[in-house]
From TrEMBL:
Lineage summary: Bacteria, Pseudomonadati, Pseudomonadota, Alphaproteobacteria, Sphingomonadales
Record protein name field: Lipoprotein
Amino acid sequence: MKPRVLPVLLPVLLAACSSGDDPRVPGDTLDSKPFAGISDSETLHLTGTEPFWGGEARGTTLTYTTPENQAGETITVDRFGGRGGLSLAGRLDGMQLDIMVTPGTCSDGMSDRSYPFTVTLKLAAETLYGCAWTDSQPFSLTKNPSKTL
């Protein structure tokens, strides 16, 4: 390609790359505001499925718990309100910890609870999944049709 043609084609190529909805990116592509569904002052409760884990986050503090450490370990995290949810990032035991919380109905698979947020937790190379709720957006109890009284 000749050098003179590149400046003319570059805007067209960039427009083609950024046009349309990308189903891999959460949220409304027309909304440029950061996610505000969980305020810094709210406690975010986290519960993970096997292997079991949990925690609570408020502001820039996260307490991460496991069955082996029920008291948990408290770390400082950075909060980021992205287009489709909230991210928390910090270091736990020297490893990178990233938590992504997105709105959406979530089930822990073991109770009759329905949670308002889904969670993906990445600790070093391990990826874990779970659910979350806040005091203003609590979990609800759902009747499991497979259970009989």
